[in-house]
Amino acid sequence: MVSPIAWGMWRFAGDDVNAARRKVEAAVDAGVTLFDTADIYGPDNGERFGAAESLLGRVFAESPGLRARMVLATKGGIVIGTPYDSGAAYLEQAIDASLKRLGVEHVDLWQIHRPDILAHPQEVARALEKAQAAGKISAVGVSNFTTWQTAALQQFLTIPIASTQPEFSALALDPIRSGLLDQAMTMDLAVLAWSPLARGTLMEPRDARSLEVAALFDRKAAEFGVDRSAAALSWIMAHPARPIPIVGTQRPDRIALIPQALEPRWTRAEWYAVLQASMGEKLP
User: Fold this and answer.
1) Are 230 and 273 in contact (CB under 8 A)?
2) Alpha helices in 72-120 (DSSP H)
3) What's the pLDDT tens digit per position in 48-95?
């Protein structure tokens, strides 16, 4: 069991370990138990490959008790310039490298960050099972996989896939259209929704579509005395697949507001109104 909202570390960066620790502590204090990072987090912030994991490892070294208070998830399989490698040899060294950077003996959830089209799912499955048997990972997940890619990997695994991580927001509806959320309910997968605020567009609407969706969120936010982001996150969580939004804010004051997203309640008519505004058409 994990918290209904996760905290993501795509922008977790810098050399100030005390500031980094305050961010992690703010998330823990806000009730977050699921923390999601990846080995590729770093270059987008002008830092080296693995920088976010290394920073979190420095936080753990300074405050060892924090590790025990979280479900730690990371990802691998993206190789700069390749771009993807889920071959057995690479997965083994990627998992080991993440553990070393984090300064831990195991992670609770290890996810393949992007599907490697050239890797047979049987090879991927054996590598993941080997890592679990060695005690390096407790559970396995997939990120940005199609429904068929997830099904193919599960076909060769003797352990269940625990999670799937798609982009999902009121402006990114593919998990609804593709059947991914239906598959998640069928396979009992946790859905970890990345970019739940549509890469910031819901906070700074730029076109008629996003403005209309934002207005509906503002109405719901005013009803419950929360801000627009809380309404947007609650809309995602209202789906019966119980998606877990990954919140990426790096400001402790904003992290403290994460529990607000648990407050709004949606009627069917209100929820479908947001969906139709995003689609730009009425449902039949």
Assistant:
1) no
2) 88-102
3) 999 999 999 999 999 999 999 999 999 999 999 999 999 999 999 999
**Do you know the residue count of the chain?**
284
Q: Is 74 helix (H, G, I), strand (E, B) or coil?
A: strand
DSSP E strand boundaries for 144-243: 161-165, 190-193
- For 250, the 3-state DSSP assignment is coil
Model pTM above 0.70: yes
- Full DSSP string of 179-196: SHHHHHHHHT-EEEEBST
Instruction: Return the CATH architecture of domain 6-165.
Output: Alpha-Beta Barrel (3.20)
pLDDT mean over 194-216: 97
pLDDT, tens digit (0-9, with 9 covering 90-100), for 88-98 = 999 999 999 99
If you ran DSSP here, which 8-state letter would residue 21 be given? H
**Strand spans (E) along 85-217:** 107-112, 137-143, 161-165, 190-193
- Residues 97-106 as b/e (b if ≥16 CB within 10 A, e otherwise) read ebbebbbbeb
- State pLDDT tens for residues 264-279: 999 999 999 999 999 9
pLDDT > 90? residue 1: no
C-beta separation of 30 from 258 below 8 A:
yes
Q: What is the DSSP letter of 249?
A: -
Task: Return d(Cα 110, Cα 86) in angstroms, integer.
Answer: 13
In whole angstroms, what is the distance from residue 103 CA to residue 54 CA? 8
90 a catalytic residue: no
**Main-chain dihedrals φ then ψ at residue 144, nearest 5 degrees:** 65, 25
Q: Are 194 and 165 in contact (CB under 8 A)?
A: yes
Amino acid (1-letter code) at residue 70? M
Single out the residue of 147, 135, 195 nearest to residue 171, CA to CA: 195
